[in-house]
Amino acid sequence: MRGARSRSPAPSWFCAKTPSLFHGHVAVVTSLVGPREILVTHANWGNGWAIPGIIYNGMRVFDESPLNDWTAVRFWNDRAAAFGRVYPAYGFIYPHGGAA
To answer: 98 Cβ partners below 8 Å, 6+ apart?
Structure first.
C-alpha cells in the first residue's frame, strides 16, 4: 500500500532521483536533527560506480532548498569531511497510517 507524501521530514522514506542516480534513491529518515537537517540510513546501488551492498547509517542530510521545502539536499561525505553536491529530492513517503 502506498503511503502519504509530504515535504516535511519525519521518520519516513526519502526519495531522490538524478541522472547519476538513474535508478532512483531511497533512504530511511532515522532522526530529525533540526529544521534543515536529518539523519538517514541509505545505500547506493545499480549505477555502475556505486559499490552495492554498503549501507550507510546515521548519514547527515541538509536541506539546501531556497524555500526550506526539502526539494534540494546535500549528503555528508565522511572522506571529504564536508557536504557533497546538491541533489534534487522529491519528498517524504510515510508508511500507511504515518504522519502526513
So the answer is: 3, 4, 10, 11, 12
